[in-house]
Amino acid sequence: MAQPNPQSKRIIDLRKHPRLLVPSGALFSFKRLVVPVQLGEQVEGEGALVDLSIGGCRILSELPLKIGQEYNLIFQISMERPPIPVDAAVVRWTDDSTYGLKFISVDPHDESRIRDLLLEIRRPSNPL
Q1: Other CB atoms closer than 10 Å to residue 68's CB: what's the count?
Q2: What is the pLDDT at residue 128?
Q3: Which of 13, 25, 50, 102 has the fewest CB atoms lying closer than 10 Å?
Q4: What predicted TM-score, i.e. pTM, was given to this entire model?
Q5: What's the confidence (pLDDT) of residue 41?
């Protein structure tokens, strides 16, 4: 039996910023930025935030998102923290109900809050 070529399974990570797993229970909501939309197309939804970097995130959502579509996002990491908005993010890849989004517009104050959150997640005794 032929062995699979290990080179064929190699994944190249082109991200500028490493993503970190977020605490379970982190949620997000989204709203499509560009209108008009097709009749019956969902333009708002919610789901779970899986991982996060300063430049993007991976999310789970039952609502289908398409590569290239732009959304604004709101992350709710915990009830003790205020939500963090992202003005615009674009869908870069999809895999079933999992989506990779790249942030394309974030208010500087909110970007600072994301950076602070990532620093907390990196700490060994993560209180989140």
Answers
A1: 9
A2: 56
A3: 13
A4: 0.77
A5: 65
For the residues of the chain, what is the DSSP string, one character each?
-PPPPGGGG------SS--EEPPTT-EEEEEE-S----TT---EEEEEEEEE-SSEEEEE-SS---TT-EEEEEEE--TTS--EEEEEEEEEEEETTEEEEEEEE--HHHHHHHHHHHHHHHSSS---
**Residue with token string 């930025």:** 33
Of 56, 48, 57, 53, the residue nearest 26 (C-alpha): 48
Q: What percent of the chain has pLDDT over 90?
A: 52
Q: Is the pLDDT of residue 34 over 50?
A: yes
Q: Identify the structural domains of the chain with CATH numbers, from first to last.
A: 17-119 (2.40.10.220)
